[in-house]
Amino acid sequence: MKHEWRKHEKELYVPKDKPQLLTIPKQKFFAIKGKGNPNNADFSERIGVLYSLAYAVRMMPKNGFTPDGYFEYTVYPLEGVWDLTEEGKNSDILNKDELLYTIMIRQPDFVTNEAVIKAFEIVNKKKPHPLLKEVYFDEIEDGLSVQIMHKGSYDDEPASFEKMLNFINENGYERKSMVHREIYLSDARKTEKDKLKTVLRYMIKTK
């Protein structure tokens, strides 16, 4: 049976629109770092490179290589970890040009270094791109976290962050840092702003 993250990993990817406490296990990702406004073309180029690698893994059996433990699955959604430069943190107004980000796409557990090398070989041959050299493979464990489903424009996210912060403070936790994670369940190019769905997450610890 095909593994579909929306159905089989609902706790991680389909939270309610109120804060939810959970522990995120170690996960594997293709990732790339960047700086600046996500509305710029550079951001889209980085997304494209990540997806080319993600689909290279997904389609490997058709390219003559089947990793051990391979199973049919739906490609995972784009995720982003967001921070600000020091200048951005010292400003009272959000300047998107001062954003620092790492965007990534999760990979199934069967993906090993061998499969990663193969994915790069496939993409370098079929769809080469200068940004490929900036992509890296990593294992990340968010651990204890609070997340919420945000529905609507990205610019309206502060209201959902406030709900999470209230939950964190009321339940004896604190954020590990100002950094937050976003998981994009909607394609912003094809979805109306008021219908966008984005998972927002803070890593936390007990006070």
TrEMBL record:
It holds the Pfam family GyrI-like. InterPro entries: GyrI-like, GyrI-like_CCH_Lin2189-like, Reg_factor_effector_dom_sf. Residues 18-198 form the GyrI-like small molecule binding domain. It comes from the Bacteria. This is GyrI-like small molecule binding domain-containing protein.
